[in-house]
Amino acid sequence: MSGPSPTPVHTIVDATVVHRRLRPRDNAFRYRVAYLCLGLGALESAAGRWLRLDRRGLVSFRRADHGARDDSDLGAWLRRILAGHGLDGICDGEVVLMTLPRMLGYVFNPVSFWFCRDRSGSLRAVLCEVNNTFGESHCYLVHHDDQRPIEPDAWLEGRKAFHVSPFLPVEGGYRFRFRLDDGRAHVDVNYHDAQGLMLATSVGGRREALTDASVLRRFLGNPTMTLAVIVRIHWQALHLICKRARFHRKPAPPAELVTR
What we know:
Layout: E1 11-21, E2 27-39, E3 51-53, E4 59-61, H1 74-84, E5 95-99, E6 102-103, E7 111-117, E8 123-131, E9 137-142, E10 156-159, E11 173-180, E12 184-193, E13 196-209, H2 212-220, H3 225-242, E14 258-259
């Protein structure tokens, strides 16, 4: 009897994004979106008839949208970060980048996730690459203090250091939970302040092989998908303004690129 089929190098995640703000003004929404999960070590093989790599196309992935933003090698950029935090020895396996592609030349990625595994396939660290609507970027490097594998039910904590929403202060911290297996990808990011949980967010869904057919079905069937992301952000901001949520001025970004 043959065993289960191995996970393809590159996949699409048919994902649901969920946001729920609990206080002081309740606000909740959810929407569907398709993410790419790209194996960093075989990035060139992700290109196909409908998905272009570093080229113009209806659907494309550009290295310059990530890392140092200069078209340089993404693997080298990530390895420098891991080495700087003493994780290069255990994060010596596959790296999977979960992110939105460009659609019709446009993308805004609120957050992309770099899943870093060891040689046995265990998840050891996740780099959360965050972008705000002010054109700034910051990364949160998440792992256990003792560097043990990250289990799907494990919650990990980190302090908040980067301004994203003008309706939330840069204080308190996040709680993260990650799952990336053969069938699904899922991330929870919950924001806590001194009073407890304030914002619960998640993104995740079923994984399927990245093929010309799946790209055509998932992405070209919804050509305004990435534009709708930024439209929804501003639409929800309008909701919060109407609910008289407190507005916080944007502080200067952190001096360091990565917060642990």
